[in-house]
Amino acid sequence: MAIDTSETSPLVEPEEVPTIWEEALSLTVLAGPIVLTLFMEFVPSITNIVLVGQMDTPNLKRYVDATAMAVMYTNITSYSVGLGMATALDTLCTQAFGAGNLKKFGVLLQSAILGMSLTLIPVSLLNWFAADVLKALGQEPALADLTGTFVRVMLVGYPPLFFFEALKKFVQAVGLTTPMAIMTALGNLLHISLGYYLSQYTSVGYLGPALALSVFEVALLASMVLYATWWNPMYSSWSVEWSWATAWSHVPQFFHFGVPGMLMMLIEWGAIELLTLVAGLMANHILTIGVNSILATTLNLFYMPYFGLSAAATIRMGNLLGANQPLKAKSIMWIAFRLTFGFALITASLIVLLSPVLPRLMINDVDIVQRASTALYYIAPLHLVDAMNAICQGSFRAIAKQGIASGVNAGAFYIVGVPIAVLFGLYFEWSVEGLWAGFSFGSLSAFVIYQLILRRVDWTILANEAADRW
Which end of the chain has fewer CB atoms surrounding its CB within 10 Å, N or C? Predict the structure, then answer.
């Protein structure tokens, strides 16, 4: 491991330490469309519940519950897996582009297609048998069956979604982030309009939004392929010459970087879902589950800008390491930290200032709104640390050390965060507020360990490792 670590491309200049303001502006401009893309990919989860909630049916509550459970289930078994595996290309594509080796994209594309195809096998099994899994976990059989059917319809869209996520990384690696923002924004219009029509005016009923989401994901892949082959035929410089032997030889490399990236997401997302289960064990659990849902949704929404900024920093650092400019790559990381800290202070303050308003935008229940309005104070510090952790994780992806980050996540959240959350929330009976206050210690411990490691990184060695890779 390289502890203690260049661009002849559109994103790289001769090696020199960039000024803070110039690079901060560059990162912000690069991150903007990425943030919009992430938001547009997150919105359908909420839209599905809203669309089902607009139906005129005596079984409305059961359908809404099934849809909400399907969203939670697929976030863990599908979306986190696809997004996580695609992060392998954050390392591989950015460094290859920085090294001026665009022809390597052809092999990387082939190995990504094979890797994602293999990943889809267990994902498909988990989702096809979702009802059985949920029943085994103790869920009510009737609700589990409704949820399982909803998930099966969503399953149709997973292959195109996984391949879209992979192709997205190739385009982002060369500094093009706006096209995907446009694609996902238009796709959401398709999802909403088609989902509303199917759920309101056809016999498809509550499955309409799920079917519309699958159509949306097919459309995303189609638009991405059209963009890369016709609108901006960048594929011509990728040397795409299919070779089974060459493609298979690079699949282990894809999994080497993809699996830790996937685990990084699964560990964190899974820990948050555990908080939902713990909230359900508390006195007045209907209230605490509702409050917990508002806190989790708020954290997710306010986290997106930093996930996007993290992706932008990964692109810049990866390009620079590939181009053998370690000094500049290191500077980008610290500039990203400063930029994130400044923005996160503002957004954490907004969570507090908007605490009387945010719950009302999500639910009409008076008791839940009043409780959530004060409980939001407890996640503001967590949001600040989470934002900084996003840059830490992006840095580990850029330097090809995802495995370290996933290990830190596992220890921080399951040895520190979740146990302290349970201690505060259940044993000390501090309820959902204690739950999130305790969980903050997990995020904080991860940040401390990340910083200790990143401060010892030898960027020159990492640049040499990137050069050996290409």
Answer: N
Q: What pLDDT score does 16 carry?
A: 64
Q: Give CA–CA dist 103/242, Å, rounded.
A: 13
pLDDT at 38 over 90: yes
Rg (CA), the chain: 22
The letter for the amino acid at 221 is L
Domain residues for the domain of 157 are 20-469
pLDDT score for 446: 98
What integer pLDDT is reported at residue 12 of this predicted model?
53
Identity of the amino acid at 5:
T
Whether 342 maps to a domain, the answer reads yes
Average pLDDT value over all residues in the chain: 92
13 pLDDT tier (thresholds 50, 70, 90) = low
pLDDT tens by residue, 295-326: 998 999 999 999 999 999 999 999 999 999 99
Q: What is the mean pLDDT of residues 117-144?
A: 94
Handedness of CA 383, 384, 385, 390 (dihedral sign): positive
Any long-range contacts for 265-271 (C-beta under 8 Å, 24+ apart)?
265/80, 265/83, 265/84, 266/76, 266/80, 266/81, 266/84, 267/406, 267/409, 267/410, 267/413, 267/414, 268/409, 268/413, 269/75, 269/76, 269/80, 270/76, 271/413, 271/414, 271/417, 271/418, 271/439, 271/442
Angle at 304 between CA 300 and CA 308, to 5 degrees: 155
For residue 138, what pLDDT is reported?
A: 84
Which string of DSSP letters, residue by residue, matches 32-90? Answer: HHHHHHHHHHHHHHHHHHHHHHT---TTHHHHHHHHHHHHHHHIIIIIHHHHHHHTHHH
**Structure confidence at residue 5 as a pLDDT band (50, 70, 90):** very low
Structure tokens at 111: 């190995």
| Residues 132, 144: Cα–Cα separation, whole Å | 8
| 343 within a domain of the structure (yes/no) | yes
The whole-angstrom separation of Cα 180 and Cα 177 is 6
In 75-177, where does DSSP find H-type helix?
A: 80-86, 88-98, 104-128, 130-136, 141-155, 158-173
Number of domains in the chain: 1
d(CA 121, CA 395): 30
> Does 305 reside within a domain?
yes
